[in-house]
């Protein structure tokens, strides 16, 4: 290991915490302390006051993600090189860089990562203008609760490739911190949305409809209901991100009035990491 970064001590965490909170990586300092006690390799600092926050990307994958990186762009290649060694030492198969605007991806490419995912950010101004589209006959939309987690997980697994699929713990967290809604047909959940409001703004975090129930207007009804809910909470704009090659979602969101922001986000990854010994 190159030894550029080391696990954060309790006093390091006091200065890392504001950045981690601001990036919504943890809810509070006790959560950051608990993470770094249980898995000290996840919160890393350098003697220059740089920091990185790492976490498994998805339970079903062996990717380690750089969820937060606080250093000058010129230092990114050094930091990433070091974090690749951390990932290797912890037995992960790949290191993922943070999602960054494509215009800022240079230092990650210089570090030897390559672009593996592209994500568009879409934004809707004045969500109150969007008319709520009713669901098709026989389908109702209601708020989701913890008892819907299994059904939501099933729809999520059927709707997203492994890279983007949430694992059960991530879904439970999103549902407890955001507002979920499910579309139900004959008492069975067939689609869901997750909407969140934070200091960073209002967003539509997820939209999925079970494959057999698509193209009947369920997705449009769910999305417009979530937008109306966010507007009712005072949102002046709603943002969301979606895979750049997702034609169905771009068309659906475009019809609701979402517009693509100029800078595409990119996800970069290392090649496969061989074990260190
Ligand atoms: C996107 C998704 C939620 C749409 O659900 P849905 O119930 O089919 O949505 P609707 O029936 O309301 O509308 C679908 C629209 O997409 C269009 N569409 C569907 N598949 C398409 C495709 N492959 N290419 C282009 N347009 C497509 C439909 O023509 C329709 O648009 P139109 O009404 O203007 O003709 C659903 O396809 C899905 O769950 N996909 C996988 C998960 C996902 O991509 N989620 C969104 C990103 S977060």
Question: What structural keywords apply?
Answer:
alpha+beta; five-stranded mixed beta sheet; elongated; Aminopeptidase; 277 residues; 14 strands; binds coenzyme A; 2 domains
Quick description:
This protein is an alpha+beta fold and 277 residues long.
Structural notes for this entry:
- The protein is an alpha+beta fold and 277 residues long.
- It has two domains: 6-117 and 265-269, Aminopeptidase, CATH 3.40.630; 127-235, Gcn5-related N-acetyltransferase (GNAT) (Aminopeptidase), CATH 3.40.630.
- 32% of the residues lie in helices and 30% in strands.
- The protein has helices at 10-22, 29-38, 76-89, 106-110, 149-159, 168-177, 218-232, 247-256, and strands at 6-7, 43-45, 51-56, 63-70, 94-96, 100-101, 114-125, 139-143, 179-185, 188-198, 201-209, 237-243, 259-260, 265-269.
- Helix 5 (149-159) packs across helix 6 (168-177).
- The longest helix has 15 residues, at 218-232.
- The radius of gyration is 20 Å and the shape is elongated.
- It starts with 5 loop residues before the first strand and ends in an 8-residue tail after the last strand.
- The relative contact order is 0.16.
- The structure holds coenzyme A.
- Coenzyme A binds at residues 159-160, 206-209, 214-220, 242, 246-249, 251-252, 255.
């Amino acid at each position: 290991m190159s030894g550029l970064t080391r696990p954060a001590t309790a006093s390091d965490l006091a200065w890392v915490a504001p950045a981690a909170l601001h990036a919504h990586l943890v809810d509070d300092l006790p959560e950051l302390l608990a993470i770094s006690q249980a898995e000290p390799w996840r919160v890393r600092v350098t003697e220059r006051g740089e920091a990185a926050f790492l976490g498994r990307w998805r339970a079903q994958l062996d990717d380690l993600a750089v969820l937060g990186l606080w250093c000058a762009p010129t230092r990114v290649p050094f930091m990433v090189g070091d974090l690749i060694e951390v990932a290797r030492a912890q037995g992960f198969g790949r290191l993922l860089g943070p999602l960054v605007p494509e215009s800022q991806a240079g230092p990650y490419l210089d570090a030897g990562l390559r672009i593996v995912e592209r994500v568009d950010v879409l934004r809707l101004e004045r969500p109150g203008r969007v008319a709520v589209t009713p669901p098709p006959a026989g389908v109702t939309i209601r708020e989701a609760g913890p008892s819907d987690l299994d059904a939501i997980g099933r729809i999520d697994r059927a709707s997203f490739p492994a890279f983007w699929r949430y694992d059960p713990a991530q879904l439970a967290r999103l549902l407890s911190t955001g507002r979920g809604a499910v579309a139900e047909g004959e008492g069975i959940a067939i689609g869901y949305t997750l909407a969140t409001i934070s200091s960073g703004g209002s967003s539509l975090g997820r939209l999925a409809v079970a494959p057999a129930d698509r193209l009947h207007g369920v997705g449009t009804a769910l999305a417009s209901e979530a937008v109306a809910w966010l507007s009712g909470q005072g949102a002046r704009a709603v943002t969301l991100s979606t895979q750049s090659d997702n034609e169905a979602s771009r068309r659906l969101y475009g019809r609701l009035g979402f517009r693509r922001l100029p800078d595409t986000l990119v996800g970069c990854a290392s090649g496969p990491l061989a074990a260190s010994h």
